[in-house]
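Appendix B. One record, verbatim.
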Amino acid sequence: MRHVVRLATLAIAPLLMAAAGPAPYPAPYPADVEAVYAARFQDIATSGRGELSRYDPLESVPGATPKPLAVDSSPAIDAAALKAAAAYAGANNSSAFIVIHKGKVAAAQYFGTTTAATGIVSKSLAKPITALAIGRAIALGKIRTLDQPVTDFIPEWRGTPKAAMLVRHLLDMRSGLLAQGVSAEPMNMWSRAYLHPFHEKIILEEYPLTDAPGSIYEYSNATSELIALIIERATGRRYAEFIGSEVLKPIGAAGGQVWINRPGGLAHSGCCALLPAETYARMAMLVAQDGKWGGRQLLPKGYVAAMKTGTAQNPHYGLGLWLGGTYIERRGFANANRPTPKVLHSEPYLSNDVVMFDGNSSQIVYIVPSQQLVVLRTGDAPPRTPEWDNARLINIILGGIPGAKLTPQPR
């Protein structure tokens, strides 16, 4: 499960009574604050989509006045492959489909009311953005290293077991914090750490450490949400401004908006950015280009390699990136030992260097550095039948590159 919290439908009156009653928290919040949380909880419960119907308040994420990427008037990728891939995207509730090959747009298609300027909700496509943010902060000297203790930025945890947590553990999901889960109970920790107007205080003061940092992979929104706090404390700048000015503007990407927990509060860095499709694609291009853009090294040398390196606890996840690695037919997002849904891969990727931005509803950006290739698909969750195949879209494109020297993902 990613940032979406799926809940049973609840009546508003019982919900407010539960929120206003005794809460198992050390510092109760004022009634008006709890009412905002209750309304958000109810919104998810009744939206029919398992997610908020709207994000409020939003903060502007500055970006560049985009100079359009060059369009390849005669793509090297076979036209039939581009057509088949676009058809697969179109049949799966997509909002955007983009193929960028060797720095040029080989195909771009938008569906329904989506346009090139539409802000597309990131869902967990926000998580690789956190890795880019940390890399940029390291390049600027605001964070020393991935192995810097988190307590340098969160002194509240000094002298506690959480003090063993490193910055890298927030990016590779080895923080040791409670794994993501689901509950229909209004005062559950997962919903409060996501929906509460003071969600950062919930995470800092109440979200439990269940394992030693670095010892286990456990996917968790709360883990990624801490990145916004660390960036703000490390740089003295708002997360939205930092992302826009230090990541998006240098790569010529348009900005957008990000959900903040309350007016003037903290941005949600684990989810909930609203950015145009091409902005996500450009960030993927930055990864494909080893952290360089236009000859400028934006990320430290070796940082992208670190992003593409898995851990013993999960060889398929690096720093905010999903990795092809050794082929498995079904790969989930939670710890592999947990009985959670797993995404189908009907066959190995045709290239062994495929890495991905991957978010809820099968929103995905494939990156194939060896082919200078980026393929994006955003949108709502695909139909249940036929099942979404996480290998099909990228393999259609890879198979359509004439003369490409491909080494398939190993079994």
